[in-house]
Automatic annotation (TrEMBL):
Protein name per the record: CTP synthase (glutamine hydrolyzing)
GO molecular function terms attached to this record: ATP binding; CTP synthase activity; identical protein binding
EC number: 6.3.4.2
GO cellular component, one term: cytosol
Pathway(s) this gene product operates in, as recorded in its UniProt entry: Pyrimidine metabolism; CTP biosynthesis via de novo pathway; CTP from UDP: step 2/2
Name of one Pfam family that matches: GATase
Organism: Pseudomonas syringae pv. ribicola
Domain Glutamine amidotransferase: 37-111
UniProt keyword annotations, A-Z: ATP-binding, Glutamine amidotransferase, Ligase, Nucleotide-binding, Pyrimidine biosynthesis
Family: Belongs to the CTP synthase family.
Amino acid sequence: MDVVSGAGTIVRIGLVGDFNTQFAAHQAIPQALQMVGDALQVKVEAQWLPTPEIGNGERLTAFDGLWCVPGSPYQDMQGAMTAIRLAREQHIPFLGTCGGFQHALLEFARNGLGWSDAEHAESAPDAPNAIIAPLSCSLVDALSPIHLLPDTLIARAYGRLEIEERYHCRYGLVRELEQQVFGAAMKISGRGPEGEVRSMELEGHPFFVATLFQPERAALLGRTPALIKAFAQACRGNAR
């Protein structure tokens, strides 16, 4: 399934994930891209990239931006990780939402911090170094407030520091690892009501933002998703 919307400058976005018509977030993505394409007066051409087909990631360089979408566990975790690493290292605009956030954390831990044995408890429940573990309170279809940190990409996208977004999530970062994961490179950019990490972004990158929540679902309510718009703007800046 491909998504084409808007008119004007062509912006090519690769949707990294395994499309499922039953996922609310996947239903929302075409609507969100249509809305931001109209708002920015650009033609958004988005292509779904099933994780088993990503391979070494060579074909991904044709895109102006990569969005690792919800839908974990992915059919091929390594495919998703290859796409995230490419975006991180090659400075390709990147957005990760829900499962995309979890796997962006995992990719950074393995390849950025050198934690080669870092795992996701959903796919490796018995792993000794599962840095992504079940949340103490499930966030499946929960609507919850998030406090955004000042002077971050995500705060500029929303234009305010207090937001409310919907989740469909059962896993997040092991809280005890927070200080080891975040520092000079990867920064926390949003926290939940109890201080939990809800969004992050990479310093020195034109646009590398990941959220545990699903901002695209605002489109299902007729609202242009602010973060998706900011991502598309970054992709437009990278368009060739």
